Amino acid sequence: MPALPSLEELVDSAHVVSLPMRVKFRGIMERETLLLRGPVGWGEFCPFPEYDDHESSPWLAAALEAGWMGFPPPLRSAIPVNATVPAVPAERVPEVLGRFGRVDAVKIKVAERGQSLRDDVARVHAVREALPEAAIRVDANGGWDIGQAVEALRKLSVAGLEYAEQPVPTIEGLAEVRRRLSEGGTPVLIAADESVRKEDDPLRVARAGAADLIVVKVAPLGGVRRVLDIVEQAGLPAVVSSALDTSVGIRAGLALAAALPALPYACGLGTVSLFESDITLDPLVADDGGIQLRETVADPGLLEQFAASRERREWWLDRLRRVHGILAANQHPLFTVS
């Protein structure tokens, strides 16, 4: 195992950027992230601002794996990806889909706060009308209760759903939604996302029989190697997704997708298309339904153009210092502490 990089080394290599979004996503129009340049590549540390230091520590471990260790050998060089449709009005669906080129699968955000089930139905049907043959999955981010989820998925299933991602917040709720849909003859698979990456035990959802598949993200789960182990132990099909990353973070997601023994579903790694600009001149965006595995190098001009304010840079560096301290104190399994 390599030594945990020193805090001084990380601060010296850090770039904090703020990238404008094309559409509102997770309630934001600017995505801030801290990029680290290591000896073997670039890493991205971008936990959302509301995450505490403990929840943010796996994100830093993943960034250090990317920049200081590199990734496991790939088993494939082309990764199929889905388009992502945020909670936009139905009339904006063609505009959003137009940024993705050929689309074979689409993830649609539903259960957005302040919107209704009618909005969700209209958005899903607009996607189905635009793409009659595409696989469609919906993502509620735990925004429904059990009754709402069952009602919504029965109505949305008319459009033909590949699966529903995290319809309710809890593992017990997922199991109950899955049971009710099955008993009611509604053919919708249940995918767990937050119930994997936000749990102290990411395998509990699999042991509970609460999901048909799991959604895995490199940064929140602590790196490619740790996610490979989680997927193997869970024994469920896995979908690789992103956390609204730049191409640096997407590169880590592609490394995971490339190293998985099986990849039965298109991956949610097409989110760079939601940005107005990226931090590389060769962004990792979908082309003909997928992304080719390749390295990512941040461009100095783009890092300068989108540099965050001095105040926000200091906020991120303070966060980096605290989270680095957590990794050092807890002897992270990827790194030794000198």
Radius of gyration: 19 Å
What is the general shape? globular
Mean pLDDT, as a whole number?
Answer: 95
Order of strands, main sheet, comes to: 5-6-7-8-9-10-11
| Strand count | 12
Strand-pairing-aware structural class: alpha/beta
Beta-strand level of the residues, as a percent range? 15-25%
CATH 2nd-level architecture of the largest domain: Alpha-Beta Barrel
Q: Which CATH class of the largest domain applies here?
A: Alpha Beta
Low-confidence stretches: none
How are helices and strands ordered from N to C?
HEEEHEEHEHEHEHEHHEHHEHEHH
What is the fold's blueprint, element by element?
Layout (H helix, E strand, L loop, with lengths): L6 H7 E12 L2 E10 L4 E4 L7 H17 L8 E3 L2 E3 L7 H5 L7 E5 L7 H14 L4 E5 L6 H11 L6 E3 L5 H13 L5 E4 L1 H4 L6 H4 L5 E5 H4 L2 H11 L3 E4 L5 H13 L30 E3 L7 H6 L4 H20 L9
Parallel strand pairs: 5-6, 6-7, 7-8, 8-9, 9-10, 10-11
Antiparallel strand pairs: 1-2, 2-3, 4-12
